[in-house]
From TrEMBL:
Keywords: Coiled coil
Name this protein carries in UniProt: SurA N-terminal domain-containing protein
Coiled-coil segments on the chain, per record: 75-111
């Protein structure tokens, strides 16, 4: 092959991969889902169960699933912002927090309503539930807590929750704008 053909082939490969990288947001083949379907389903199932325990509360499955999706989007936006600011949650911090939460929740694990009943329907032990499902949730909340503490340092009055809420909403709105197509796809698949 002559140099001209090789140069053209190399240029085409570079253009193809550049376009491909833009389409997959930097991932080699496919970008991971913005929010995993399994996470949506787990949260929906848990909240459906919790709401079923409350008498005289009538909320549609579609409204509940929409709320779950909005919660997960907000958590994802705030967690990504925390990571952008290079905030970290160490394994030791996570284990300490999990131990605290598990200790608080221990008294409810055997009840015939609430968490105890939910665990029975899932055929999970208390420890399995926390390790399989709650660990990532707790870690996410810890990232968000650290981010909010950073923001409080920026405010004149450390108790200004209005500034905090404005900052949270700004991050969430920016995230939604950046991921609008993916969010629409998630809604179409779930609602």
């Amino acid at each position: 092959m002559n140099k001209g053909k090789i140069t053209v082939c190399v240029a085409m490969v570079i253009v193809f991969f550049a376009a491909f990288q833009m389409n997959t947001k930097g991932y080699l083949l496919f970008a991971p889902p913005l929010i995993e379907q399994e996470k949506i389903d787990e949260r929906f199932e848990l909240q459906s169960f919790q709401l079923a325990q409350i008498e005289d509360l009538d909320i549609s499955k579609q409204k509940l699933k929409s709320d779950v999706i909005q919660q997960l989007i907000a958590q994802k936006a705030l967690t990504e912002k925390a990571k952008e600011k290079e905030l970290e949650v160490t394994e030791k911090e996570l284990e300490t927090r999990m131990d605290e939460i598990m200790e608080q929740a221990q008294e409810y694990k055997d009840e015939d309503y609430g968490m105890g009943a939910f665990l029975k329907t899932q055929d999970l032990s208390f420890e399995e539930y926390f390790n399989q499902y709650m660990k990532e949730e707790i870690k996410t909340e810890m990232f968000i807590d650290k981010l909010q503490k950073e923001w409080f340092k920026e405010f004149d009055d450390a108790r200004d929750y209005n500034d905090l809420e404005e900052k949270r909403q700004e991050v969430i709105d920016d995230f939604k704008a950046e991921h609008q197509d993916e969010i629409e796809r998630i809604k179409e698949e779930n609602l």
